[in-house]
Amino acid sequence: MIQFYIPLNFLGFIYREIKQAIVDIEAMFAVLQVAPEVTDRPGAPDLVVSGGTVRFEDVRFSYDEGREILKGISFEVPAGRTVAIVGPSGAGKSTLSRLLFRFYDVSGGRITIDGQDLRDISQESLRAAIGMVPQDTVLFNDTIAYNIRYGRPAASEAEVEEAARLARIDGFIRATPKGFKTEVGERGLKLSGGEKQRVAIARTLLKAPPILVLDEATSALDSHTEKEIQDALDRVSEGRTTLVIAHRLSTVVSADEILVLADGKVAERGCHAELLAKGGLYAALWNRQREAEDAAAALARAQAEE
Ligand code: ATP
C-alpha cells in the first residue's frame, strides 16, 4: 500500500500546486506577462500594511525600449478610498494594475504601499495584500463552494454562504441542482460572465485583502446584472483601498477621485461632477458611452417590438 500511497499523494500535491499557481496570478494576463527579471531582493521583508495607502510617484514605464507607455504618473489612493482610472483604449490603465502587482518594475519613479517601495518587499506578501476581481474569472472544474472557498481555504461553510450572499450570487446557486455542491467549469455548469464575476467577488470577500483592484469588464451587461454586480462590488470595496480600472464608465461615478489617462499622462482628475462640468476628455468619453448605450437600448426595444 505504501508504494502507492506516496506517489498518489505526490500527484495530489502537484495538482494542488498547479491550481495554486493558476489562481495566484488571478488575472490571466499575468501568466503571459510576468517578467522573469522581477525578483525579491535577498532577505526582502514582508509588506506591513497599516492603512493600505497606495502611492504612485512620477511613475514611468515602457514594455519595449523607445516606447514609453507611462510618462510620469502621480496619484494617491488614501487608505480605504476608491480611485478610478479611465481613458481611451491603450492609454495604459491595465498597465498601472500590473505595476501595482509588481509583474514589472517601474522604469522611473516609485510605487509605495504605506510608504514601502514595492521593490523592497517580498512579492508573496505584496500579492497576499491585494485582491483582484478580474475582467474574466477563471473557474476550476470543481464545485461552486470550492471556487468560492479558494479565497480562504480555511473558511467554514457558513462563511462561504455568507460571501455568496454578499456577492449576490446565492440565489443563483440555490436554484442549481446541487446548490453549493454543483460542479462548474468545463464539464460542469457553465456560468455567464456576470455570474463568474460574482463568484470572483465572493472569493475576494473571503480573502478580505486590504487593497483591491477591480478590473472592470469590457463587455456590456444587461442593466439588471450590471446593478447586481455594482452592488456586490460596492460591498467588496467598502473600507478597502480600491483601484478601479474602468473600461466602461458606469462604475466610476461614485469614486473619490477619477484619473483620466491619455497618452501616458494624467490628462484630467477630479470627481465625476467636476469632470463633467469641465467639458473635456472625460465629458466626451462619458457622452460617447451614453450615446452608444442609448442606441443599444433603442435597438433592443425595436427588436422586442418586431
Ligand atoms: P484597454 O482599455 O483597451 O484595455 P488599457 O488602457 O488598459 O487599454 P494597457 O493594456 O495598459 O491599456 O496597454 C497600454 C499600452 O501598452 C498599449 O499600447 C499596449 O499595446 C501596450 N502593451 C500592453 N501590454 C504589452 C506587452 N506585454 N508588451 C508590449 N506592449 C504592451
Overall description:
- The chain is of the alpha/beta class and 306 residues long.
- It is built from eleven helices and ten strands.
- Strand 7, helix 9 and strand 8 form a beta-alpha-beta unit.
- Residues 1-8, 19-25 and 27-33 have low confidence and may be disordered.
- It is globular and about 55 Å long.
- Helix 6 (157-166) packs across helix 8.
- The strands form two sheets. A six-stranded mixed β-sheet has the order 6-7-8-3-9-10, sandwiched between helices.
- Residues 33, 63-64, 69, 87, 89-95, 247 line the site of adenosine-5'-triphosphate.
Query: Could you give the distance between the termini?
Result: 68 Å
Number of strands: 10
- Total helical segments: 11
Give the DSSP E fraction (strand runs of 2 or more residues): 15-25%
**Which kinds of small molecule does this entry bind, naming each only once?**
adenosine-5'-triphosphate
Topology readout:
Elements: H1 2-24, H2 29-33, E1 54-64, E2 67-77, E3 82-86, H3 93-100, E4 108-113, E5 116-117, H4 123-129, E6 130-133, H5 144-149, H6 157-166, H7 170-174, H8 193-207, E7 211-215, H9 223-237, E8 241-245, E9 257-262, E10 265-270, H10 272-278, H11 281-305
Helix pairs in contact: 6-8, 8-9, 10-11
Bound molecules: adenosine-5'-triphosphate (ATP).
Adenosine-5'-triphosphate (ATP) binds next to strand 1 and helix 3.
Q: Short summary of the structure?
A:
The chain contains eleven helices and ten strands. The chain is an alpha/beta fold.
Task: Give the key terms.
binds adenosine-5'-triphosphate; six-stranded mixed β-sheet; alpha/beta
